[in-house]
Amino acid sequence: MRATVIHGPKDIRVEEVPDPRIERPGDAVVRVTHACVCGSDLWAYRGVAARQPGQRIGHEFVGVVEEVGAGVGGLRPGDRVLAPFVWSDGSCDFCREGLHTSCPQGGFWGEVGSDGGQGEAVRVPFADGTLVRLPDGLDQALLPAVLALSDVMSTGHHAALAAGARPGATVAVVGDGAVGLCGVLAAHRLGAERIVILGRHADRTAIARRFGATEVVAERGEDAVAAVRELTGGQGAAAVLEAVGTEESMRTAISIARDGGAVGFVGVPHGGSAGVDIGQMFNRNIALRGGVAPARAYIPELLADVLAGRLDPSPVFDLTVGPDEVPAAYAAMDERRALKALIAF
């Protein structure tokens, strides 16, 4: 089969690799129909996050079950399924608490020795605990919205919950990537009254407006802090979503939070932790929560809203490619010619 592999910075290839097969009783083999490129994949593409030459890549996919192991009880061949970006056993203490990302037996697609989501098929460990079965007869037009739940929409939702987005609240979102935009949508879904998006790309902030943003701040750094303060009567936002992961973005997020507010951080850290000003957080009673989103815990609730027509994160996909065009999709996202690429197999 064909799969996307990374050989080094700016070196993404689609190559022939061995077909996946059942290795343990709880495994399933899923034929991928739709996948996508994540902003976090770009850190490996840019050489910021280390990868071994030839390592698989990709962690978001929808597909059809082709084969199941003898221990799989909840799935059968032919089922259409959604995979969260982490596999988990579904039965440990952490999984039962809704923190599937801390499952001792869990892992991330694309780890050394595992299949990546940007391939024609994937071996799924702990299939019963990991995969979410989709309804029979699902409208194919909904698949992009469903695919977004595998990571970016669930991650935006995680940030909004961690920050305490709620009815009537003022929310600020730092970052206009796919996760930040989904954070806007999540905050709007949770009833936020005002949502300020910090972003400077007109095409992206237009999506933010569509998702429920009420104001846009294009400035950065201290200028952004001043702008948000001015918009909020000097107080700042009660809930701040940090969706970038740099020192500057974290410093900005903490600085624009209202006293007694909270920052929900989901940006993959790649700029150190000096942006966390403990003194400022202590003096102003600012909470900091977040981390890796337990998408498997959130998908059932979010999926119900997608199926009912109440939630549609699909506008984050502004480029659709075939599997042979995946390297070009990485380049387009890296050069900001695309926000998020969908791969149709």
CATH architecture of the largest domain: Alpha-Beta Complex
**Helix and strand composition category:** alpha/beta
Report the uncertain regions: none
Largest sheet: 7 strands, mixed
Number of domains: 2
Shape: globular
Radius of gyration in whole Å, from Cα?
Answer: 20 Å
SSE order: EEEHEEEEHEEHEHHEHEHEHEHEHEHEHE
CATH topology of the largest domain: the name is Quinone Oxidoreductase, Chain A, domain 1
Helix content: 25-40%
Briefly, what CATH class of the largest domain? Alpha Beta
Query: Ends: how far apart?
Result: 12 Å
The number of E-state strands comes to 18
Can you walk through the features of this model?
This protein is α/β, with parallel strands linked by helices. The chain has 2 domains: 2-151 and 294-344, Quinone Oxidoreductase, Chain A, domain 1 (Alpha-Beta Complex), CATH 3.90.180; 155-290, Rossmann fold (3-Layer(aba) Sandwich). 30% of the residues lie in helices and 25% in strands. The protein has 12 helices and 18 strands. Strands 3, 5, 6, 9, 10, 17 and 18 form a 7-stranded mixed β-sheet that branches. Strand 12, helix 7 and strand 13 (215-217) form a beta-alpha-beta unit. Helix 5 crosses helix 11. It starts with a strand and ends with a strand. 50% of the residues are buried.
